[in-house]
Amino acid sequence: MVRVTQRLEARVLGEGDWIAASEICRLCWLDPGAVMELAELGVVAPRETPPGEWQIPATALPRLCVIGRLMRDLGVNVSGAALALELLEGRRELERRIRTLELLVSDH
Amino acid sequence: MEFRDYYKVLGVERAATADQIKAAYRRLARKFHPDVSKEPNAEARFKEMQEAYEVLKDPEKRAAYDELGANWKAGEQFRPPPDWGSGFEFSGGAGRRGGARFRAGRAGRSGTGAAPDGASGEQDFSDFFSSLFGGGTPFGRGGGGAGRDHHARVGIDLEEAYRGTTRTLELRRPEVKPDGSVQLRTHTVRVTIPPGVTEGQLIRLAGQGAPAGGAGQAGDLYLEVHVQPHRLFQLEGRDVTLTFPVAPWEAALGASVTVPTLGGSVDMHIPAGTQSGQKLRLRGRGLPGAPAGDQYVQLKVVLPPANSPQAKALYEEMRSKLDFDPRGQPAR
Fold first, then answer.
1. Using the beta-carbon criterion (under 8 Å), do B108 and A2 form an inter-chain contact?
2. pLDDT confidence of B18, banded at 50, 70, 90?
3. Neighbours of B290 (CB within 10 A)
4. How many angstroms away from the CA of B260 is the closest CA of chain A?
5. Binning pLDDT at 50, 70 and 90, where does residue B135 land?
6. What percent of chain B has pLDDT over 90?
7. Using omega within 30 degrees of 0 as the cis cutoff, is the peptide bond preceding B260 cis?
8. Minimal CA–CA distance to B172: which of B183, B186, B182?
9. How high does pLDDT run on average in chain B?
10. Is there a domain that residue A65 lies in?
11. What domains can be seen in chain B, in order of their start residue?
12. How many structural domains are present in chain A?
């Protein structure tokens, strides 16, 4: 029997949430220069509000965290991590399509 | 605790150079990185590698580890020698980010609970590592700054993503004892995950990260959601796709069929003349949200077997009476 000492309400970060770029850096192990480079590469679309303060949509968090982990753990640079992310997403999409086609042609 | 053979983990000789160790780590990290790898147990393997590399890349730690001798075997029961640590002084913490430990248990749902995320920045190193090199500072950024954030992954079923769910997590937090020493205490929290979470989404639990060193705020705990593959539905964003078998006459003539959705079965009309592979949309029947996702029903026309005289006669009749060539040319 597990004794629960605390009950917590989760806050899902999703559509409509914007997060300060500084917090994104902390969350995803990225430095500000990397975030700006990712914006230039089109990986994220930040907004400047108020002037001088950049925000990033929370929906971009999962992708940015993957990029941050790849950079930190594999020693790749921003462009390399962004390319790896695109390839990983492409692979996932292909796997999904293969699965769909397999279901379509399978006997069961 | 069990001895860990860090050289074996990285697949290098004890006499390996720093460059060889780095190359071995890089090679294995590419293979087992949890964001990239399809290998079974990639996450656990990657954490082992991180721990091994943490020791072997650091000349001080490596020298201390080597002092244990070459006769130990991985998995052997181990206790640090009584005089352990008297001759060494480690200049760094246990991990790159301070070494505070976090453990999210599997309590609640076997196999789908949160697991510590080796790739997420948490250096959840083994007891073996801690006994040799300590846990580093258990607090955040030192001084009066805020505590560190913690990260973990949580696996949930698609049905749980649809309805919402709870997870019971074990968190190990450092606490200062009256004598000033620090000990890790485990406490259990139950987290309510709201309906509509999707793959990769982050859930923030404010104040559940590392405590602050001084008067600052504790860090937050972030759970990264992973939705397990489902036997019927495929998830893409908030949309789900179901492959749904239909009879040829249902596709050709149209039909009303009962289709499973995450929220229960619904009646759906198949228009006449639908082909195998075509998708029909059930608006709002995907994961909840603003807006809710849709369910796509991909039709799969299944032919009845020609395994009876009657079935064969019907196929023969179609062949003789229908002017149909599936390869695009009229039959006659």
1. yes
2. very high
3. 9
4. 16
5. low
6. 41
7. no
8. B186
9. 80
10. yes
11. 1-91 (1.10.287.110), 94-228 (2.60.260.20), 233-321 (2.60.260.20)
12. 1
